Input
Amino acid sequence: MLVELEDVSKRYQLGNLWVDALRGINLTIERGEFLAVKGPSGSGKSTLLNILSALDHCDSGSVEIEGINLSALNEHQCSLFRRRHIGIVFQSFNLIPVLTALENVIYPLTLSGTVNAKARAEKALEAVGLEQLMSQRPTQLSGGQMQRVAIARAIVSQPNLILADEPTANLDSVTSESIMSLMKQLNREQGVTFVIATHDNYVTGLASRVITVRDGELVEDEPSPPFTLQEAIA
Output
């Protein structure tokens, strides 16, 4: 088992109101899964990923990844844990515009003091098919290419878990197919566990398992029916 959540709840205050973003979530994720989290906007998908990535803490319950209780970690420890164990792919790419593709991928390695950072970053960019574009800045890249840089940055630390929040939301269908094929390839060939928040049917169609979050609650947890990306888009 890679991830275990027990009775996880999270509330946010909006003005004078308290909103239950997550309510009593129980979830286990095995190594090597390709898991999709679906649900409407505001259902709690992003909050769940934020808690899994140690960017936020739950108010109650427990979150364990690699056998480590994230709730027991302080902010510095969470940051170290995230760099070593988790890769994150954001909907808006979150690349640093003044850095090249290679420098963006190197950046998290420099924060952790990793040796051979340049060689590892080059290898990660090669894995996502961008070996010819390493010197380009984000403004010189297409949306799909920027997302590939973001994926290279996520895998460069060789994490066991990658969290992706709506990774195809800003991409056209052809580019989305390419990005999802890349993620499936990384999952299949490198054994990386993926948790992908989405509301798109073609993404859930590729998942080995789909959970549905609605109003902060996990309401469905089932294997995904096997069909191809082309069928999902159709």
Notes: The first strand starts at residue 3 and ends at 14. The CA atoms of residues 106 and 118 lie 6 Å apart. The two ends are 34 Å apart (CA to CA).
